[in-house]
Specification:
Cytidine Deaminase, domain 2; six-stranded mixed beta sheet; five-stranded mixed beta sheet; 387 residues; alpha/beta
């Protein structure tokens, strides 16, 4: 049996935490001292990016926080507006592009993330990570230059884990809760085109770009605390609603995040005259406040602290008009939609393609709502609950 002592458990007063495995652990600590939640994020994140690599044949990255992905993506090349909204350099490796996309899904939630990479971390990816606030990383390997870059993070305490890419878990998953042992088969689901074949709406056209986005969204849900809903676009997550008891709350939460992602792509935001020297994290916070509809938040009242000149406000009506032009977004749900209100909310965020398991008593009403929104809806044979 190999054992790894951890920094502490879920909380600092839970000392003596550790992980172990008969036959040896599949990971190695190259730097830092991981904690309990770090390892939960790392192992879930690694499974997600490994699955994405298998499903799409593209390098993949994930940004995990508190055992759910804040973002996940595959290496679809960045468009110019995306590069600008992510404050990304023009020259990036495919793996770096995947992480820029994963981190860019919800930069506020990704602050202090645990990173998972499907491929060997290269210097391009490490240079991007070096500029972000992050707790650690897991990958199957590291180029020597990349490892040197990462070891300098957090004054040398940055957690760096190497996972054995050939490791396969036992078919039976076991956990203990309150002294009671649970067992279930490991969920080995990887989506294929066959899983997207049962189209139940009048519209049947499912382009390759949508197939990719639906696969990204489904696999993201596989490792997201349920109930969960995921919006995806251009090979990446743009909004996750995780751990909600009501599915409409998942759809609203994820839709709100997806709307913010779309608004960040608008020229109004891309052209904000930030004051020289403002950090990327400060810019993220200011953009969030600038786009907020909360009347208590008035970033323009203190514009001199952030901008070289006073920007025009982005009114609620202007934002609605902009969002009304969005189409082509994909949406996945880890279980069936019980009411058509989810579809109506999704339509307001530009959703054109939906995958869900079906099985609701009101499937006919849900399908009708999708038809009224000119959407393509797929019934997948797989529910994707994760706890």
């Amino acid at each position: 049996m190999e054992r790894l002592d951890l920094k502490y458990g879920c909380n600092p007063d839970q000392k003596g935490a550790y992980i172990y495995r008969e036959g040896g652990l599949p990971l190695e600590v190259l730097n830092g001292h991981p904690g309990y939640i770090n390892l939960l994020d790392a192992l879930n994140g690694w499974q997600l990016v490994a699955d994405l690599r298998k499903a799409t044949s593209l390098p993949a990255a994930a940004s995990f926080k508190h055992v759910s992905p804040a973002g996940a993506a595959v290496a679809v090349p960045l468009e110019e507006d995306e590069r600008r909204m992510y404050f990304a350099p023009s020259s990036l490796s495919p793996l770096a592009v995947a992480y820029v996309r994963a981190r860019g899904a919800d930069r506020m939630s990704s602050f202090g993330d645990f990173i998972a990479l499907s491929d060997t971390c290269d210097a391009s990816t490490a240079s991007v990570i070096a500029k972000e606030v992050s707790d650690g990383i897991i990958a199957p390997g590291y180029e020597s230059e990349a490892l040197d870059i990462l070891k300098r993070k957090k004054k040398g305490s940055y957690t760096i884990l190497r996972i054995d890419p050939d490791y396969a878990p036992e078919p039976e998953e076991i956990r203990t809760v309150f002294g009671v042992t649970f067992s279930q088969p490991h969920n080995g689901f990887i989506p294929t085109d066959e899983d997207l074949g049962n189209i139940v709406t009048g519209r049947k056209e499912l382009p390759e770009s949508a197939r990719l986005d639906l696969k990204v969204a489904m696999l993201t849900l596989k490792y997201t605390q349920s109930n969960s809903v995921c919006y995806a676009y251009h090979g990446q997550v743009i909004g996750v609603g995780a751990g909600q008891q009501s599915r409409i709350h998942c759809t609203r939460l994820a839709g709100g995040k997806a709307d913010l992602w779309q608004l960040r792509r608008s020229e109004r935001v891309l052209s904000l005259p930030f004051r020289e020297g403002l950090s990327r994290n400060d810019k993220d916070n200011v953009i969030e406040q600038y786009l907020s509809d909360d009347p208590e938040i008035d970033v323009l009242g203190h514009w001199q602290d952030y901008f070289s000149s006073r920007p025009e406000p982005f009114t609620r009506d202007e934002k609605r008009t902009y969002l009304a032009t969005i189409t082509g977004v994909s949406l996945a749900s880890d279980a069936f939609f019980p009411f058509p209100d989810n579809i109506e909310r999704a339509r307001r965020s530009g959703v054109s393609y939906i995958v869900e398991p079906g099985g609701s008593l009101r499937d006919d009403l849900v399908i009708r709502a999708a038809d009224e929104g000119s959407m393509v809806m797929v019934f997948s044979p797989h529910r994707l609950f994760h706890h």
